[in-house]
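re: ur msg from earlier - yeah i can do the S-adenosylmethionine complex, just paste it... oh wait u already did. ok heres what im feeding in:
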Amino acid sequence: MDETEWDEVADVFDEIILDVPRHDRGKKILQAVKHHGGDKKTAADLGCGIGRTIPMLAEHFGRVRATDISKRCLKRAERTHARYDNVEYFHADISRGLPFKPVDFVLCINVLLAASRARRQSMLDNICAAVKPGGHLLLVTPALESALYATHRLVQLHEAEGMKPAVAQRKAARDTTRLDMGVVVVDGTPTKHFLKEELADVMARRGMQVKDIRKIEYPWGYALAEAPAEMGPPLPWNWMAVARKAG
Ligand SMILES: C[S@@+](CC[C@H](N)C(=O)[O-])C[C@H]1O[C@@H](n2cnc3c(N)ncnc32)[C@H](O)[C@@H]1O
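and the outut:
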C-alpha cells in the first residue's frame, strides 16, 4: 500500500487494522519494552500508525521518535498522545531513509508488508540501521506458517459444513501466484509473510544478533472472515523477533 492508501485507512484504522499489542495476551511486547527501557535511552516507533504503541514507549524511554508514511495516521497519533512531551513525530517513508539518528530501541509492528522485494530490502536496511550498536530491535511481521495453517482450518470448516473434500479445498484456495515468495493476498493486497527461519536470516545478514522469535497470537476473525466466534486454538499468529545490533 502507498501513502494515499494508508491515509485512507487513517479514520477507520481500529476497525480494519489488527491491533497487535492489544491482542498480545502474554504482553510480550510490553515486557520487551520494559526490559530494554530506561530514562536515558531513546526509542523509535517505525510505522507508528495511529500511535497504539506510543504510550508504552513514552512511559519507558527518555525520548521517542515516531514515524509513519501516512500524514493522516501521524496526525491522529500526535493528537491522541499530545500529553506525552517526550515524543517527536516525523513524516517519512522508511524505504528512503531515516529522519533521525540511530536509537537504543526500535519497535516496528507489521510495517514490513511490501510485496516488492526491492522496497522491502530498503525498508529492512533502514529498520536495522535505526538501531545503535548494542541496541535492540523488536520486529513483528505476518507469519507465512500461520497463513497456511489458516487455510487448513478453513478447509476443515467447509467440510464440517458438509462440503466434499475437493469442494472444501477449492473454496478455501488462495491466490498462490507468489506464495513461494511468501506473498499472500490479504483483503486484495499482496502482503509479504515471513517464515521464522527467513526472518532470522534477513536480520542476521544485517548485523543483528537474533535473541528470540516467538508467536504473538490474534483472534481468528482477523485471519478468516468465515471463522465462527467459538473457533479455538491454536490461534493464528504474527512473528515477534527481538534482535541486538552487534557492536
Ligand atoms: C499495519 S499498520 C501498523 C501500524 C502500527 N505499527 C500498529 O501496530 O498499530 C502499518 C503502518 O506502517 C506504515 N507504513 C507503511 N509503509 C511505510 C513506510 N515505507 N514508511 C513508513 N511507514 C510506513 C503505514 O502508514 C501504517 O501506519
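cool cool. The CA atoms of residues 156 and 169 lie 9 Å apart. ping me if u need the other ligands too
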